[in-house]
Amino acid sequence: MTQTEVDIVKKTATLARLELGEAEIAKFGEQFGRILEAFQKLSKLDVSGVEPMTGATALSDVLRDDRAKPSLERERALSNGPKHDGEYFIVPKTIGGDA
Amino acid sequence: MSQTAIPTSGPTPQGVGVVSKKTGVRWVPVIGLEVHCQLKTETKLFCSCRYEFGASPNTRVCPVCTAQPGALPVLNREALALAVRVAVALGANVAPRTKFDRKNYFYCDLPKGYQISQFDQPFCTGGGLTLPSGKRVRLTRIHLEEDAGKAIHDRGDTTLVDLNRAGVPLIESVTEADMQTSDEAYEYLTSLKEILQYAGASDCDMEKGSLRCDVNVSVRPEGEPWRTKVELKNLNSFKNVKDAIEHEIERQIEAYESGDKSKFPVQETRLYDATTQTTRTMRSKEDAHDYRYFPEPDLVPFHVEPAFVELQRTMLPELADARRARYQRDFGLSAYDAGVLTGSRALADFFEMVVKLSGNAKETANWITNGVLANLSDPTIAAKTVDELPFRPHDLAELVQLVTDRTIHNNVGRTVLRAMFETGKSARQIVKEQGLEQVSDEGQLEKWCREALVGKDKVIADVKAGKTKAVAALMGPVMKASKGSANPQLVQEILLRIIQTEM
Q1: Are residues B122 and B47 in the same domain?
Q2: Domain finish residue from B407, B433, B459
Q3: Structural domain of residue B447, as residue ranges?
Q4: Contacts of A87 in chain B (CB under 8 A)
Q5: Which residues contact B171 (CB under 8 A, 6 or more apart)?
Q6: Does B173 map to a domain?
Q7: Residues B411 and B449 grouped into a single domain
Q8: Number of structural domains in chain B
Q9: Angstrom distance (rounded) from CA B345 to CA B200
């Protein structure tokens, strides 16, 4: 396993909020290497003149009218969260965020 | 996303920027804005939940906007229509084909773990707007995206999450770094807000979060290439935007002039604190997110046909700029009055409806700018905006006519307008009920005039000596006696006649 593979695995784990042990890093690093190899083969194909695909269907322009439908009952919506107070989802204190 | 375009430099307009007292260097600020506006649709961008500001938490959510497994997004046609309408209003190029991408990051207000946004194929590029000062600000792009929910951190030692806002449609517009002063940024926001409001695309109400603005600022010595830019966030009002830019320009100039490289501005995001009027580091470039954009596989590509664009063009009303020019040209109004009357589309529409009915644009303008708006800003009056007026355009037109045909005196008209605000009754009805019609009956007027003349020997002597203007001193008592209903022109004539022929 190369250092690059280790770095990629570590970075991906951080982005995915996963904590990996040394053994796991080694195992995933090897698997990652094989995946990247397969993609490298793909990247050798000549695709000039081929429209990039962004989905597996031939569908396009699927739109809906701007008409409201009933939302979920709050109780049901909250019941799928880990913790709630009857009004809000409750999560560990996190300050920062984005957008 | 939204990196403001890389330096295209170009010449600096003469005299722009800040001359340092310490070094004499002219520092030229480089400013670009990223503005998020909430589109005025009934439902969210990808699901049929009806969003409403202030709704009870987590009552406007469904499997799509809470990211339940298997739920699929479907684009709201009206959101696309409004977005295209904005693009047309800003002279931008609408792309014939557009798609959505996933912007990946983890935060508790983002249930899917990604935001559906647009990366490399935004629905529109280019365009721009001309500020009242004549300055042109170009737009890089505008894209559609969904809003995140709301995280509340100030209640206890946990974070509360409300997902009502998650999935609400936004357009993010990104300018080129064309602005050089905080005033230009302020003017840009005001103009953009006006266009979006007139287009009916967004309320642009910063207090309700339907308009949010981030700023990119850097400074450079005149003639030199662009330097490191800093992003400012947490700007809750147009005034905050202006203050934050001024503060940041000062901070950066000071940092460069210190000569200490460790203090030079670095590429980072800073949060503005309105109470201390300072900014502090939120995250540095090293912590910058790696969003790993990739095409959203749950949505299909979209084609925006020229006919659809043209349809949106026809749905655009005449914008404020054009109306201001027309009011001055066709109605002979001052630039100031034209500006006041176009303050909102609702006000401008109201004004035009009244003019159509009253046939007198100047008087109508006076009655709106001096009368209607003064009453709306009076805290004892229930109505606060034109939409809340208790009377119709027809009623105000009637008042304007009653004054112009002299059925009632101008001052009485003010009383009538006040009563219209308080009761919602028509002008004619109020005049009738309160007996406010102007009195032109000579017998009655003469009686009031004779009463007013009692003991006013000085005035009488002055008038007889040829100073006819002295009669003005008697107008007040007559108007008072008549409770404002006496026809002032006739009163003056009668007073002069009595003095000159009988005294």
Answers
A1: yes
A2: B433
A3: 442-502
A4: 56-58, 160
A5: B36, B37, B39, B83, B86, B142, B143, B144, B145, B201, B202
A6: yes
A7: no
A8: 3
A9: 9
Cα dihedral value B295, B300, B304, B308, nearest 10: -140
Tens digits of pLDDT across chain B (503 residues): 344 433 444 455 567 888 988 899 999 999 999 999 999 999 999 999 999 999 999 999 999 999 999 999 999 999 999 999 999 999 999 999 999 999 999 899 999 999 999 999 999 999 999 998 999 999 999 999 999 999 999 888 899 999 999 999 999 999 999 999 999 999 999 999 999 999 999 999 998 999 999 999 999 999 999 999 999 998 999 999 999 999 999 999 999 999 999 999 999 999 999 899 888 998 776 666 789 999 999 999 999 999 999 999 999 999 999 999 999 999 999 999 999 999 999 999 999 999 999 999 999 999 999 999 999 999 999 999 999 999 999 999 999 999 998 888 888 899 999 999 999 999 989 988 887 777 778 888 888 898 888 888 888 889 888 888 888 888 888 888 887 778 888 888 898 889 988 87
Domain finish residue from B375, B400, B433: B433
CA of A27 to nearest chain B CA: how many angstroms apart? 23
**Smallest Cα distance from B153 to chain A, Å:** 7
Nearest Cα of chain A lies from the Cα of B161 at a distance, in angstroms, of 5
Residues of chain A in contact with residue B151, where contact means CB-CB under 8 angstroms, are: 91, 94, 97
Nearest to A61 among B107, B283, B300 (CB): B300
- Examine the predicted complex and report whether its ipTM is higher than 0.90: no
B69/B27 same-domain check: yes
* Sequence spans of domains, chain A: 3-42
Residues B209 and B152 in one domain: yes
C-alpha span between B8 and B225 (Å, rounded):
9
Identify from B58, B171, B270, B280 which residue to disrupt to test chain A contact, counting A C-beta atoms within 10 A and taking the largest count: B58
C-alpha to C-alpha distances, A16 to A11, A95, B111, nearest whole angstrom:
9, 18, 14
| A10: exposed, middle or buried (Cβ count in 10 Å: 0-12, 13-18, 19+) | middle
